[in-house]
Each structure stands twice: as C-alpha cells, then as structure tokens.
Design goal:
Layout: H1 15-33, H2 39-58, H3 67-71, H4 75-99, H5 114-118, H6 125-143
Helix pairs in contact: 1-6
Length: 145
C-alpha cells in the first residue's frame, strides 16, 4: 500500500520547507526545555496537533494505484478504524492508570501512565530534545505532509 518514491516524485527543497524544518527544530529545543507535565508543554503540543490536523484534513485523499487498488476498496476507512482502536486502547490505559494513582500529582508504579514509564529516560534535555524530534518525524510520517 505504499508508493515507491523516485527522484521525479520527490518535492523540491524550497525556502518554505527549510523554514518549516528549522521552526520544528527550534520548537523541539524550546519544548524540551519546558518542565514536564505542566501546562506550557501541553499547550504547545495541542497547538502543533491542531495545526497538523488542519493541514492533513485540507489535503485531498489520494487513490491507490497498482495491485493494491483492487484489493483495498476503502483504505481510508480501514486505516481510520485501526488508528481509532489504537487510540481508544491507549486512552483507556492512560485513564485507568491515572485514576488508580494515589493522587493526580503522585505517580503510581503499580499502575503507571506513559509519562511515569518514560520519566526516567526523559530526565535530560538532550534526550527530551531527541524525543521531540522523533515525535515530529513520526507525526510527519503518519500525516505525510
């Protein structure tokens, strides 16, 4: 279901793309310096997610070509279902773990949230910066901007 990329299909490097990439690197650096699990990084993430979601929905849905076109009649519906189920399972896990903590500000290692699991790894700013960059790369790969 993937389309092979050739040199003729790649989009040319433009100033808009260079400035966009530089902005994301700067945003990752600023975001990695914010104190974890506070409102400022949450607001930054929500703004980024909102912008990317808006850009993703503005793009027209492409048609599959080749042998996959006949085999997969509705690729958007199928992928939406898969990602919806994964999102629901993740949210249920987070909600269960959050509500089984001793208090909202005290993490529980018996019922850990993803934040509790990743906190030891993301203690240092260079690691958090790399995490932000990986998060941007994963988001770009999923949305294909």
């Amino acid at each position: 279901m993937t389309v092979e990329s050739t040199a003729s299909q790649r989009q040319p490097l433009t100033w808009v793309r260079v400035l966009g990439a530089a902005s994301l690197v700067l945003l990752a650096w600023v975001g990695s310096g914010l104190r974890a699990q506070t409102w400022p990084p949450t607001i930054v993430i929500l703004m980024i997610a909102g912008i990317v979601t808006m850009l993703a929905f503005r793009r027209p849905v492409g048609r599959l070509t080749g042998p996959d076109a006949a085999r997969v009649p509705h690729p958007l519906r199928r992928s939406t279902l898969v990602w919806g189920v994964l999102l629901a399972v993740g949210l249920l896990w987070e909600a269960y773990a959050f509500f089984h903590q001793p208090s909202p500000l005290t993490p529980s290692f018996t019922h850990p949230t993803l934040s509790t699991l990743f906190d030891p790894f993301l203690e240092y700013r260079p690691v958090r910066f790399t995490g932000w960059l990986l998060w941007f790369w994963a988001g770009r790969s999923l949305v294909r901007l």
